[in-house]
Amino acid sequence: MSKSNIFSKPNHILPASTLKYLFIGWTVFLILLFSVSFVNSQVSGRYIAASGKQLVLSLDVSKPTPNSLIVVQTTSPSNRVTKTAPKAKKIARKSGQIKWLFRNPSPGSLTITTILQSPLQGRVSAIVRYRDPQSGHFTETVISN
Amino acid sequence: MVKIDGTKIKQLREQQGLTQLYLATAVEVTTDTISRWENKRYPSIKMENGIKLADTLGVSLEELLDQEQENDQLPATNVKGPSTEVTATAPTPIISQPKKIWPIVLLSTTLLCVLLLFLYYFQKSQQSTELGAQRIVPQHAIAGQPFPVVIKINETGGVPTAVILNEIVPVGAQISQAFPETTGKKQPGNRIKWLGKVQSERIFSYIVHFPKYQELPLGFSGTVSFSGDQEENIQGQSEIILGTHHWADQDKDNIISDKEILAVYDNYSDVKGLGDEIDTIEEIWLGSGYKWDNKSQSYEILD
Fewest CB within 10 angstroms: A81, B13, B185, B293, which? Predict the structure, then answer.
């Protein structure tokens, strides 16, 4: 009998098809592992209210926090904004865009509320823009309801 | 059905260090069946089993056949006449690659990923311990308009370290403010000097403008030395061009975008005395752009 080596099949070897699926699964796992390692998402968010007269956007800011954060919310221009909290830097009625600027945000939850004159028409979405504090890369996160 | 040579099967199996169980699993039969094949108790087997067996052992089907019966068993193809040699071709196995490649590929992929991860984290750790000075200056500015210059010093010894920073600004530059204040008497020519202490990271900055337009790129240079060690050049951006675009408008499209204003906050928000400039930049950002009026030496902010 020939000498066994590390590539000799053990007694409990699996069929080729099973090995193939194992290989694919392992590759996917490694790719995901890489993705987690390389991508440090500082900001994520979701709409916790996106109908009626009140829109509430909740952001999660994790460490290390970016120096500054810009949030651009877009709705149909037919929606009239009566109030924002915190106060928006700019409300563009023609485009339906509202802009907020946050300097030195603290880690944790950040809530942005928009009060409309009438119930929301159409959809609402937001883009959060910031520079990754570690790499300096410009990052955009899209949040929709 | 094909007639197989059990002795040859056993010989090939043993040469490769394979077990009857392995063959049985691969061909999807029992170990008893494999044993019977090898001991010639079942001299004929199904063609599909023969193909699987050949594929598992990494040989062609012909090599497993009983030599005396080989020509009778294989389907004849390309037969041209009695005098023509019969070319026997077995159906191509579905899986043509030997199965031994899977562990090698799996192991190689894993090792590669582990190596890449190690290199990535090692590089990150190296960056964080980088020692030296880096200058951040805009790529362009308008003559007569102030812009900031930042020098970041990194020192990772953990202990406050004395540092001497010598900066040479281009001829014609006028420095309106420096922070911290420069050291000693006014330096001759276009030199500024700081003496200070650094622990981890410290920023030295100044605000400068060029009263008169100059066509050629203007160069900054400087050196830094730690605790009396040899001087090192300050790394980073060292040239600026005078033009008609705001220094924060990196792509010169007469708009301050979200990306550009975030870069301003990141790079220059710690610069003392830049408050008014930052306000102007915010106004331009909130508008739809700007125009530079050379006559009045002011920005027209567009709505």
Answer: B185
CB contact under 8 A, A7 and B104: yes
Separation of first and last alpha carbons in chain A: 66
Among chain A residues, CA nearest to B112: A30
Nearest CB neighbour to A67, from listed B109, B117, B269: B269
Contacts of A5 in chain B (CB under 8 A): 17
Q: Which amino acid is at B123?
A: Q
The minimal CB distance from A8 to the residues B17, B110, B266 is found for B17
Q: What angle do the packed helices B101-128 and A16-38 form, to 10 degrees?
A: 10
Test B262 with A99 for CB contact under 8 angstroms: no
CB atoms near residue B82 (< 10 Å): 5
Sign, Cα dihedral of B270, B273, B274, B279: positive
What span, in angstroms and rounded, lies between the C-alpha atoms of B121 and A86?
38
- C-alpha dist (Å) from residue B193 to A115, B147, B179: 54, 19, 11
CA dist., res. A93 & res. A112, Å (int)? 18
Work out the minimum CA distance from A2 to partner chain B, whole angstroms: 5
Choose the closest CB to B106 out of A26, A72, A103: A26
pLDDT computed for residue B112 by the predictor:
84
- Are B269 and A34 an interchain contact pair (Cβ–Cβ within 8 Å)? no
List CB contacts (< 8 A) between A34 and chain B.
113, 116-117
pLDDT in tens, B251-263: 999 999 999 999 9
CA separation for the pair B261, A43 (Å, rounded) = 18
ipTM of the complex: 0.75
Q: Residue B85: what pLDDT?
A: 45
Ordered DSSP codes for A89-110:
SEEETTTTEEEEEEESPPSEEE
pLDDT in tens, B205-246: 999 999 988 888 999 999 998 876 778 899 999 999 999 999
What's the pLDDT score for residue B84? 45
Q: Do A130 and B103 touch (CB under 8 A)?
A: no
CA B209 distance to own-chain centroid: 38
Query: A119 with A136: CB under 8 angstroms?
Result: no
Which among A19, A27, A90 has CB closest to B109?
A27
Q: For position B77, what pLDDT does the model report? A: 46
Cis link prior to B103 (omega < 30° from 0)? no
